[in-house]
Amino acid sequence: MTSEKKNLFYRLLDSVEYVGNKLPHPATLFALLALVVILSGLLEILQLTAKHHGTGEEIRTVCLLSGDGLRRVVSTIATGVVSSLVIAAFVRKK
Protein backbone atom coordinates (compact mmCIF):
# COMPACT_ATOMS: atom_id res chain seq x y z
CA MET A 1 0.00 0.00 0.00
CA THR A 2 1.46 3.33 -1.02
CA SER A 3 0.83 6.43 0.98
CA GLU A 4 -0.01 9.28 -1.33
CA LYS A 5 -0.23 12.82 -0.03
CA LYS A 6 -3.76 14.11 -0.48
CA ASN A 7 -4.22 17.51 -2.05
CA LEU A 8 -6.04 20.33 -0.27
CA PHE A 9 -9.41 19.56 -1.87
CA TYR A 10 -9.46 15.95 -0.67
CA ARG A 11 -8.29 16.93 2.81
CA LEU A 12 -11.15 19.48 2.93
CA LEU A 13 -13.63 16.80 1.85
CA ASP A 14 -12.26 14.43 4.50
CA SER A 15 -12.75 17.16 7.14
CA VAL A 16 -16.33 17.82 6.01
CA GLU A 17 -17.07 14.09 6.09
CA TYR A 18 -15.54 13.74 9.56
CA VAL A 19 -17.66 16.59 10.97
CA GLY A 20 -20.76 15.34 9.14
CA ASN A 21 -20.34 11.87 10.62
CA LYS A 22 -20.32 13.38 14.12
CA LEU A 23 -23.74 15.02 13.61
CA PRO A 24 -26.96 13.26 14.62
CA HIS A 25 -29.41 11.98 12.01
CA PRO A 26 -31.07 14.81 10.00
CA ALA A 27 -34.54 13.81 11.28
CA THR A 28 -33.27 14.21 14.85
CA LEU A 29 -31.85 17.65 14.06
CA PHE A 30 -35.15 18.69 12.46
CA ALA A 31 -37.15 17.45 15.47
CA LEU A 32 -34.87 19.34 17.87
CA LEU A 33 -35.19 22.52 15.80
CA ALA A 34 -38.98 22.17 15.72
CA LEU A 35 -39.01 21.66 19.50
CA VAL A 36 -36.92 24.80 20.04
CA VAL A 37 -39.22 26.87 17.79
CA ILE A 38 -42.37 25.59 19.54
CA LEU A 39 -40.84 26.20 22.98
CA SER A 40 -39.81 29.73 22.00
CA GLY A 41 -43.39 30.54 21.06
CA LEU A 42 -44.81 28.97 24.21
CA LEU A 43 -42.32 30.74 26.48
CA GLU A 44 -43.04 34.07 24.81
CA ILE A 45 -46.77 33.57 25.40
CA LEU A 46 -46.00 32.85 29.06
CA GLN A 47 -43.81 36.01 29.11
CA LEU A 48 -40.88 34.19 30.66
CA THR A 49 -37.98 36.47 31.62
CA ALA A 50 -34.57 36.04 33.18
CA LYS A 51 -32.09 38.41 34.74
CA HIS A 52 -28.57 38.73 33.36
CA HIS A 53 -26.17 38.11 36.24
CA GLY A 54 -23.49 40.50 35.00
CA THR A 55 -25.55 43.52 34.00
CA GLY A 56 -28.80 42.88 35.85
CA GLU A 57 -30.84 43.63 32.73
CA GLU A 58 -34.01 41.66 32.02
CA ILE A 59 -33.87 39.13 29.17
CA ARG A 60 -37.17 38.31 27.46
CA THR A 61 -37.92 35.26 25.33
CA VAL A 62 -38.56 35.87 21.63
CA CYS A 63 -40.73 33.66 19.45
CA LEU A 64 -38.52 32.45 16.61
CA LEU A 65 -41.42 32.56 14.14
CA SER A 66 -42.15 36.25 14.71
CA GLY A 67 -40.51 38.98 12.64
CA ASP A 68 -38.06 39.83 15.42
CA GLY A 69 -37.23 36.17 15.97
CA LEU A 70 -36.58 35.51 12.29
CA ARG A 71 -34.36 38.61 12.08
CA ARG A 72 -32.43 37.41 15.12
CA VAL A 73 -31.93 33.93 13.66
CA VAL A 74 -30.85 35.20 10.25
CA SER A 75 -28.50 37.85 11.65
CA THR A 76 -26.78 35.54 14.16
CA ILE A 77 -26.63 32.25 12.27
CA ALA A 78 -23.37 33.09 10.50
CA THR A 79 -21.66 33.91 13.80
CA GLY A 80 -22.90 30.65 15.32
CA VAL A 81 -21.77 28.54 12.39
CA VAL A 82 -18.32 30.12 12.25
CA SER A 83 -17.77 29.75 15.99
CA SER A 84 -18.93 26.12 15.80
CA LEU A 85 -16.45 25.41 13.01
CA VAL A 86 -13.63 27.01 14.97
CA ILE A 87 -14.49 24.92 18.02
CA ALA A 88 -14.74 21.78 15.87
CA ALA A 89 -11.29 22.47 14.41
CA PHE A 90 -9.76 22.61 17.88
CA VAL A 91 -11.65 19.57 19.19
CA ARG A 92 -11.05 17.37 16.16
CA LYS A 93 -8.95 14.31 16.85
CA LYS A 94 -7.13 12.47 14.11
Can you put this structure into words, describing what you see?
There is one protein chain. The protein has one domain (8-91). The longest helix is centred in the last third of the chain and has 25 residues, at 67-91. By secondary structure, the chain is mainly α. The chain has 3 helices and 2 strands. The chain is elongated, with a radius of gyration of 19 Å. Strands 1-2 form a two-stranded antiparallel sheet. The mean pLDDT is 83. It has helices spanning 8-22, 26-45, 67-91; strands spanning 49-51, 58-60. A hairpin with a 6-residue loop joins strand 1 and strand 2. Helices cover 64% and strands 6% of the residues.
Q: Gist?
A:
By secondary structure, the protein is mainly alpha-helical.
Blueprint (SSEs and pairs):
Layout: H1 8-22, H2 26-45, E1 49-51, E2 58-60, H3 67-91
Antiparallel strand pairs: 1-2
Strand content: 5-15%
Q: What is the SS-derived class?
A: mainly alpha
How many angstroms does the end-to-end distance come to?
Answer: 20 Å
Gross geometry: elongated
Summed up, the domain count is 1
Low-confidence regions: none
If you compute it from the alpha carbons, what radius of gyration comes out, rounded to the nearest whole angstrom? 19 Å
Task: Give structural attributes.
mainly alpha; two-stranded antiparallel sheet; 64% helix; 2 strands; 94 residues
